[in-house]
Amino acid sequence: MMMFRNSALRGATTGSPTKFTKSTLSPVSDFTATKINNQQFSDYNNLPLQLALTDSAAKKLTSLSEEENNPKLALRLVVSSGGCHGFQYDLKITSTADFKPDEGDSLFERNGGKLLVDKDALEIMRDSKIDYVKELIGEGFKVIESPLTKSSCGCGSSFDVDFEKLEGMGKDKGEGEENVKN
């Protein structure tokens, strides 16, 4: 997904062609640059379960935390069954006081932005990218890339999980084996 700076399309109104370059396009940071490794849980291959929090998402969380004078402000990612594609995610503002590592919660931090995710949601949403987007219909936090998503609805919050791909991730060391980092 490419987000355009407001000046990127100005050439189209003057009749001259617009040349898109790195200076006119503002792409969402790639996964490698924005990923955050989980220090609590790893997968069956001892690889850390990770998510990516874009610069704009981290900045918005930091800004909200400062506006509300609440250093414990965090975003929580919840996955539940439902929606038109079988699963749905919900991103809501919460507090790190709700962080329960003994119940499987993970806390991700990037540039001051905090993200809470429980282990089940992390397994399904692993390697996903969370962004703060501004669109004509509004603005908010959104999962913009999720490699285990087979399909999703138009609203973007309901999705279908590629269970074959998910199961394939655990085959090297065997199913049912849990790796927890202490």
From TrEMBL:
<dbReference type="GO" id="GO:0016226">
    <property type="term" value="P:iron-sulfur cluster assembly"/>
</dbReference>
<protein>
    <recommendedName>
        <fullName>Core domain-containing protein</fullName>
    </recommendedName>
</protein>
<dbReference type="Pfam" id="PF01521">
    <property type="entry name" value="Fe-S_biosyn"/>
</dbReference>
<dbReference type="InterPro" id="IPR035903">
    <property type="entry name" value="HesB-like_dom_sf"/>
</dbReference>
<dbReference type="InterPro" id="IPR000361">
    <property type="entry name" value="ATAP_core_dom"/>
</dbReference>
<comment type="similarity">
    <text>Belongs to the HesB/IscA family.</text>
</comment>
<dbReference type="GO" id="GO:0005506">
    <property type="term" value="F:iron ion binding"/>
</dbReference>
<dbReference type="InterPro" id="IPR016092">
    <property type="entry name" value="ATAP"/>
</dbReference>
<dbReference type="GO" id="GO:0051539">
    <property type="term" value="F:4 iron, 4 sulfur cluster binding"/>
</dbReference>
<feature type="domain" description="Core">
    <location>
        <begin position="50"/>
        <end position="156"/>
    </location>
</feature>
<dbReference type="GO" id="GO:0051537">
    <property type="term" value="F:2 iron, 2 sulfur cluster binding"/>
</dbReference>
<dbReference type="GO" id="GO:0005739">
    <property type="term" value="C:mitochondrion"/>
</dbReference>
